[in-house]
Every structure is written in structure tokens, then in C-alpha cells.
Amino acid sequence: MALNYVANWQNNFPDAARDAVQRALETWSAALTSNVAIKVTATWGVSLPGFDAICIPNPVENFQNAPQENVWYPSALADKLVNQDLKQNEPDMNVFFSDNVNWYTGTGSPQSNQVDLQSIALHELGHGFGFVSAFLCVPGWPYTGSYGNQALISLVNQLVQGTGQALGFNLPNLNGHPSVYGLHIQDLKGDQLTNPKVYPNNSIELGAPLVSNNLFFDLNRYQVYAPTSFAPFTSIDHLNDPNSLMRPSIGPGVRVRAIDAPVLAILNDLGWS
Known about the structure:
Order of helices and strands: EHEEEEHEEEHEEHEHEEH
Distance between the termini: 12 Å
Helix content: 25-40%
Number of strands: 13
Number of domains: 1
């Protein structure tokens, strides 16, 4: 069964750009399954300093029959797990696309100075389906690391306000709770970063591994991107693999229009299988 979706195009989304994002949606539709259609809002041509695009999933926790308590799930995944639309009047995710990018919207190869819209959309939708860690580091040394920190929501709200567009849903108080993806992040010894006996939340003990270059989605499986300088919305939320769709960035002239096996394996571990 394919994953069905409903797309809502905002802010005068150009036809050619819409077609490129539609192709990305169709690729995900063939890769994942759910009885509940996902609702995607795509917003065009906004100010996103430092980003070509960004996807903000609609988070939900402690829903009826949730696999784990006090854990944040993207609503698209939660809907699949409980076989119902938990956010009936809200999108499951909003993908914002920058107005400061030389976009390539075709099906061929982008020029060296063009950013492939289909590739970026495919990548950003991956965040909407689960690649969100909810970790944060406070600048300074030693770093203080946390998860489910409300300061992260403040950063997201600042980004959204800068676009001048509506998100379509209200972001909650994270209550110091981890994301389902974050639960799987481990250090070299196999300790989970969300294990408070090893890494107390909001501590320098947690800050150190977040900038260690040695973190994994499940031990000895997939290395995640954990550079020595923490970057919100980039660190931990990506794989440290230059060939993966979920690499930290997809530069100009590059196209990545397929979902690689590690990305699918991770999403399946989160509950998409």
C-alpha cells in the first residue's frame, strides 16, 4: 500500500516548483505505507537565513496507544501507528522554501550554480517523517546539552516568524521529553543519550557527546552528524554519510532523488515498517 498525501501549496507556489516537490512526495509515497493520508503544507519563497529549506513536523506525544509515553512523534508517524488522523484540522508538516536560492525545478541535471528542488524537497520531507532529534547545545565551553528544551521551540518560532507565513499548527511545550528518533542516538559504548542515569538532561555530561563526532543511530549501525560545533536543526538530525539523502546538506549542482537503504532502515526502526 502506498502512502497517500494531501498537499497544500502556499504563497504563490510556482507550477514548475510544485511539480518538483510533487515528484519528491511521490517518491516517499512509494517507499512508506500508512492507512492515513499525510497532510503536507509547502510554502514558497520565504526568508530563511542560512537555509535553502526547512521542514517543521507537527509533534504529538502521549496519544492513545502510543508505543512509548512522554516521547514526541511526528504526527505523520503517530497517525500510521494508531491508524487515525490525530491532527485532523492541521498539517502533519510544513516545508518552507527559501526565496534566496537559484532553484532548478526540472527533471534533468542542475547546473553547478543551481540547487535541485526535487532533491531538497525529498530531504526535507525525510525530517517530516522522523529525522528530528530534539537535541540542543548551549554555546560556550563546556557545552550544556539537552533534549526537549523549550529554547528549541523558540528557535523554530523565530524562523517561522521571519518567513511572514503561518505554520498551520501551534508548537507545544516539549517538557524535556525526547523525540522517537532521539531515543535511538547512542555513544561509542552503546549508551543512549536519553538515558538520564548516564547523561542527565540539561547537563555538561550530555553536551560533550553532542559535539563528539562519535554518535550513532543504534550502536555500530549509522553514524550521525555530530560536529565539534553544534548547529541547531543540523547536528544529530542528519547522517554523517556524504552519499545519503539525509546528509547535512545537498549543495548546488547535486541531485539526490532516491531514498537510500540506511534512511529507510532508520525510519522503519522508528515505526514506519
